[in-house]
Amino acid sequence: MIAALEGRNTRITVVLIQNNLPLPAGEDVLASERAIALCSSCELNSQSLFVLPHGDHLQGYAVRLENAFYEFAQTYYHNEAKNVKSHKEHLNKSTHQYLFVRHQFKMGFLYELKQDVHTAHK
């Protein structure tokens, strides 16, 4: 599966939901070892593994998960816009007019996805 994603600028994230309440951080050695084993067997970055306890405070964990995904998305759109911009700089405006316009539109779209409306309208 990892080979199929190579070169596509993707990121895999695993979210686990626990039925039992977790022990305080640092006290559950077995869970830490299992998390490390899971990350290494799936070739995951440790920051791409999220463990959510199923309990009263699930809403707070969901908000933290949403913020983490938001940061991943912001980084992705920033890198994509940077790639498009670097490709656009190599174009000749007189001979590559359609491609130049396409790149401008694509950059505007990516900046809108980043919620950077000011830069998107440039």
Automatic annotation (TrEMBL):
User: What is the name attached to this protein's record?
Assistant: Uncharacterized protein
**Organism, as annotated:** Rhamnusium bicolor
Q: Which GO terms describe its cellular component?
A: cytoplasm
